Each structure stands twice: as structure tokens, then as C-alpha cells.
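Holo model, beta-D-fucopyranose. Inputs:
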Amino acid sequence: MTNITFPNDFTWGCATASYQIEGAWNEDGKGPSIWDTFSHTPGRVKNGDTGDVACDHYHRWAEDIKLMTSLNLQAYRFSISWPRILPQGRGQVNPAGLDFYSRLVDGLLEAGITPFVTLYHWDLPQALQDEGGWANRATAEAFVEYANVVSRHLGDRVKHWITHNEPWVVAFLGNQVGIHAPGLQDWPTALAASHHLLLSHGWAVPVLRENSPGAEVGITLNTTVAMPATGSAVDYHAARDVDGYMNRWFMDPLYGRRYPADMVAAYRERGYLPNGLSFIRDGDLEDITAQTDFLGINYYTRTVADESTGSDDPSTRRIPPADTEVTDFDWEVYPDGMFEILCRVHFDYRPPKIYITENGASYSDGPDENGRVHDERRTSFLRRHFAAAHRAIEAGVPLKGYFVWSLMDNFEWAEGYSQRFGIVWIDYPTGQRIPKDSALWYKEVIAANGF
Ligand code: FCB
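Output:
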């Protein structure tokens, strides 16, 4: 294989999220989140797993920074737990919550690691869900209050802000498919939620800029590459529908094109918009287009669509092609999709900069008798995706950094601890951290800025 070298200013990091790693779910004044409620409800999460303890990062953060240093990480993307800061979602601030993240940020900066902070990675304060959650416009207002409190405290040191992580997952997996908190199955609720998520992003951007001078502000979307299973018109429309549902429904309004007309028409026809678009008020669509500095892309796999696999519900339309290589999560390994989504986003929407804010794979390989974790499949997965990202840079895509999901094995939402995405192994009973072979390989990639 030929040598691949990334641009000099390229940033290499790892990503995590608060609920997936912190534990300490009810310590130091933290309020409950919808994921506390959801995981404590029998039958919701595989094996009854919860994030009560998770990786115990809340207590082991200093050790985790040392771990990052030992792996040469240049940046660390983490999220803030909203109910640690505002236990009721708004109003009373919990100083202990702010202190925790302040110490973390200081520790990272001392170690020379750039913090990328995500404000919302799914742990909504339960108090706000009790008032309707994201389907309630008031939640968008509360988000701005939260963004203001956090950025006033950390904005002098944090210079990279991500408002939301994957609003599609929040709106649709949480409120329509129902496999994530709060576990609802209602299209109109999900569609209203999607709008309020985007609106809260647009409203928070100027607040973050005001409180964090010179900062880069963006949003992270989960993307899929949607492809028709055959050349038929029916399959083409199925793929177009998946693309509209997952990609265009979010990117179009963010980049000033309003909600895609084909999807609005389809949702009306299917009865998902009984009150039309009444949740959109005058000025909302302008507010959503607030100028950002970058787009964060999370890319994992593609979707091959075919009419036979679903009803009119595109969430059911993913066919893993026969004999395809898959991860232990049964997600197809499709590195070309990294190149394709980066080019598509760049040429269609032209964000000034792009970061891959997540990419990685679930493989269950654990320690051998010598305590080493030989996860060659993960190294191979990452190598191929890095190479595809590099091809995109050569094609002109302004890709500025790459965050591997995840720094460590963690609570994988509805799958609990059964899926391991980490480059560092977590021994859950003891909390021991063991860098896997992929982590040691990644360390060398960072040192060489390529491979
Ligand atoms: C993404 C999430 C992240 C993790 C990975 C596997 O959708 O943002 O928290 O669960 O998938």
C-alpha cells in the first residue's frame, strides 16, 4: 500500500458521550435524564443494562486524560450532560456539574488536547420530557438557556462547539421508531421534535459565538449513503426516500433550502402531518440557517433500499447485501461510503469545513491470556476508512479532522454493553482500561500523520 499523508493542520481525535461513559447518574446534584428513566424501565435496554456506572469516567477522568496522552490524541470530543448543569432543564444551575466539566477542560488543555464539546448527545433532562420533550417548542428555549450557561463558563477555554449530535436519531429513533429514549412511536411528535432540534441549534449559534469569542461552532449529523438495490424506478424512489428522511430533512433547512418538498408531500400523504407544518413559525427557517463554521459528519454504513423491505416507513428499509462484510453489529463495512458522503456533502452543501466527528466499528474481541486485545478487524476497518477520507481530501473536500468512535467501550444505547466500539477495552467489573491493538496502531498513525 502506498503511503498516505494527511494535511499538516489535520486533527486526530476520539469521541465519547456523557451518558455512555460517565456513570454517577445521581451524584453531586445531577438531575435524571430521559436515558436514566429509559434504561431503568425493564425491557427497554438489552440485558437490563443501564448507564448508572458505565465506564465510571466521572471519577476516572484524570486517568482517562493520561490514557489519551499515551495514545497521542490531539483532540477529544465529549458531550456535556444537560441535567448535571441544570437538573430541572432550566432555572437552577448546579455548580458541581459545571466544576466537573471545567476540571476536565483544564486537564485536557494542560495535556495539549483540544476539547470539542457537544452540548446535546441525547440525555435530555427528564423534567423537560415531562413537559413534552423536543416536541414542545419550550424545550428549544431551554436549550438556549443551557447553551448560555455552559458557554459562559467554558467559552474562554473551549473553542470548538457542537450544538447537537445526530438530531435524526433524537427525533426519529426516540419518538417514531421508539427504540431510544423517550421510547415513543408517533410520527407527528417526531416531526415536530426534528424542527425544534434544528431551531434550538439555530438559536444557540449566536449565543455560543457571543460567549466564546473566536470559537468554531457547528452541528453533527448522522449520514447514510442511500443506494437503490437495483436500477428500477421503485428502488430508486425507495433510496431517495431514505435519503430524504435521514439526510436532506436536516441538511436542506440548515443550508437554507427549507424542508425538502418531496418529503413534506410524502409525510402529508401518509398522514404524518395532521396539522401540516404548523410547528414552523415565521422566522424559524431563517433562524435555522445561522452561519456555522463546520459540519460534523458521523458515518458508519450505507443503506441499500428496496421497496420490498418496508411499508411506507423508510426506517425499515435497510437490506444488508448478501455475502457482505459486516461488523459484530451487523452493519455493512462500506469504506467507499466515507468518500461518497464527504464528496456529496461538500459539493451539494458547501460547508466551510467538515470534521468526521464519528466513525468506528463494533467488534467484540477481548483480551487474550497475555492481556492483549488483537482487534485486527477494527484496525483494518479504520485503515480503509481513513484512506477513503484521504481520497476525499484529494478531491477537494475541506476535511479538517477525524474522531474515532470511540475512545473506549461504552454503553451502546439500546444495545447496552453488548456492542464494543472502543479502541480501548473496558473491563466493566473492575473499570480497567486496556488499549487494544487498534489503539496502538492509531497512536502511530497520529505520530506519522498518516500510514
Ligand atoms: C452514533 C452515536 C454514538 C454511538 C455510535 C455507535 O449514532 O452518536 O453515540 O452510539 O452511533
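The chain has a mean pLDDT of 96. The radius of gyration is 21 Å.
Archived with the compound record.
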